């Protein structure tokens, strides 16, 4: 491994040359955190490791693909970066655009972006447009904009996004020294499940690993087109990041699941919020609701089908909890206690004398 960021680290697997000017914010290198407390809580017996992608520079996994998409946009001389987003792609695009000097335009579904993500688009100076419609409608407009030569679309319909994101799988294998048995993750536009599976397959082909994991993808019940096998016109879920009714990588998500002998399932908002709280309370890991869908899927799958004892299971949590502070305050089901500024008041407020 040489240098920082996923392009330098994995350049042999990526479409760059010695002359490529790399736009990086030192993304990647995120930890794989042992979360055995959750396994104990489940009454199960397997190895659980959480790949905390919220610890990327803009707080989500999107940075892995954005570094390459923006690097390649600069290389070919594009002037504008454009994306539709439920919030994290736009946050990442805005930051990498700022670092590269390109102009960024983001199209967001009105009123459905977590406040932290909106703050990111605005502070990085992206032209921020709210569309009276949902993500799928915004993406359709972006596809049209992408027909112009001066515009680079940086949604995951841009193949470089998937290429960059596959480095998540490389890192998991490099850290474990092998492939996990199962890999759980949330599914929205289905770019990440596509990317992880591509990464595992490439590592298998070069002999870096001798087996590949079952890919276990999870959608929210109100936005589960792949599970239902039908487009969802008006997707709804508390996990706004995965509020998507017509995923761009739909077919490739199905392929990943079929080829890996995995599963694509769905979880309710209640299950997502329970997992969001569980992860924070039991493992000390704070994620946004969409990221908790993978954990909710893990609990559901174990309950219904059982995870074999001794398996190694990785769950990618995709975005940081601070992206969506309002949901966290609400879902904590707790409130601060207000007291007078003296010792007795503090002690008595927690039942001590
Ligand atoms: C935290 O930012 O689609 O299945 O526009 O932000 O690869 O789409 C975000 C998706 C999971 C789903 N977790 O990943 C966007 C966007 C978080 C996310 C997903 C998203 P994909």
Give the gist of this structure:
This protein has helices at about 5-10, 35-40, 60-75, 90-100, 115-125, 135-145, 160-165, 165-175, 190-205, 225-230, 250-260, 270-285, 290-305, 325-330, 345-350; strands at about 30-35, 45-50, 80-85, 105-110, 125-130, 150-155, 180-185, 215-220, 265, 310-315. It has about 350 residues and is an alpha/beta fold.
Overall description:
With 353 residues, the chain is an alpha/beta fold. Helices cover 43% and strands 15% of the residues. It is built from 15 helices and 10 strands. It has helices spanning 5-9, 36-42, 62-76, 88-100, 115-123, 135-145, 159-165, 167-176, 191-205, 225-228, 250-260, 269-283, 289-305, 325-331, 343-349; strands spanning 32-34, 47-52, 80-84, 103-109, 127-131, 151-153, 182-186, 214-220, 263-267, 312-317. Strands 1-2-10-7-8-9 form a 6-stranded mixed sheet, with helices on both faces. Helix 9 links the parallel strand 7 (182-186) and strand 8 (214-220). Helix 3 (62-76) crosses helix 7 (159-165), helix 8 (167-176) packs across helix 9 (191-205) and helix 9 crosses helix 11 (250-260). The longest helix is centred in the C-terminal third of the chain and has 17 residues, at 289-305. It is globular. It starts with a helix and ends with a helix. The model has no long low-confidence stretch (mean pLDDT 97). The structure holds ligand AN7.
Write the layout of secondary structure elements.
Layout: H1 5-9, E1 32-34, H2 36-42, E2 47-52, H3 62-76, E3 80-84, H4 88-100, E4 103-109, H5 115-123, E5 127-131, H6 135-145, E6 151-153, H7 159-165, H8 167-176, E7 182-186, H9 191-205, E8 214-220, H10 225-228, H11 250-260, E9 263-267, H12 269-283, H13 289-305, E10 312-317, H14 325-331, H15 343-349
Parallel strand pairs: 2-10, 3-4, 3-6, 4-5, 7-8, 7-10, 8-9
Antiparallel strand pairs: 1-2
Helix pairs in contact: 2-12, 3-4, 3-7, 4-5, 7-9, 8-9, 9-11, 12-13
The protein binds ligand AN7.
Ligand AN7 binds at residues 60, 85-89, 156, 186-192, 241-242, 288, 290-291, 318-319.
């Amino acid at each position: 491994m040489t240098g920082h960021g996923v392009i330098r680290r994995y350049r042999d697997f990526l479409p760059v040359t010695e002359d490529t000017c790399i736009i990086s914010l030192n993304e990647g290198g995120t930890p794989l955190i042992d979360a055995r407390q959750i396994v104990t809580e489940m009454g199960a017996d397997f190895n659980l490791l959480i790949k905390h992608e919220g610890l990327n520079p803009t707080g989500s996994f999107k940075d892995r693909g954005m570094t390459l998409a923006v690097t390649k946009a600069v290389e070919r001389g594009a002037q504008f970066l454009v994306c539709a987003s439920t919030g994290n792609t736009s946050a990442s695009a805005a930051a990498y655009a700022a670092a590269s000097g390109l102009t960024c335009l983001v199209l967001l579904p009105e009123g459905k972006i977590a406040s932290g993500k909106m703050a990111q688009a605005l502070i990085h100076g992206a032209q921020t447009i709210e569309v009276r419609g949902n993500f799928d409608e915004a993406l359709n407009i972006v596809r049209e904009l992408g027909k112009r030569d001066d515009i680079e679309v940086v949604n995951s319909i841009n193949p470089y996004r998937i290429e960059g994101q596959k480095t998540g799988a490389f890192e998991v294998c490099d850290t474990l020294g092998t492939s996990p048995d199962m890999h759980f993750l949330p599914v929205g536009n289905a770019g990440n499940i596509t990317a992880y599976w591509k990464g595992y397959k490439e590592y298998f082909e070069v002999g870096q690993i001798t087996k590949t994991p079952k890919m276990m993808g999870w959608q929210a019940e109100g936005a589960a087109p792949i599970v239902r096998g039908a487009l969802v016109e008006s997707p709804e879920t508390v996990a706004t990041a995965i509020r998507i009714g017509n995923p761009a990588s739909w077919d490739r998500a199905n392929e990943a699941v079929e080829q890996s002998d995995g599963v694509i399932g769905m979880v309710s908002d209640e299950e997502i919020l329970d997992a969001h709280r569980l992860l924070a309370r039991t493992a000390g890991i704070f994620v946004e609701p969409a990221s908790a869908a993978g954990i909710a899927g893990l609990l559901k799958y174990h309950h219904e089908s059982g995870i074999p004892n001794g398996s190694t299971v990785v769950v990618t949590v995709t975005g940081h909890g601070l992206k969506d502070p309002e949901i966290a305050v609400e879902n904590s089901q707790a409130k601060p206690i207000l007291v007078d500024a003296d010792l007795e008041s503090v002690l008595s407020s927690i039942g001590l004398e």
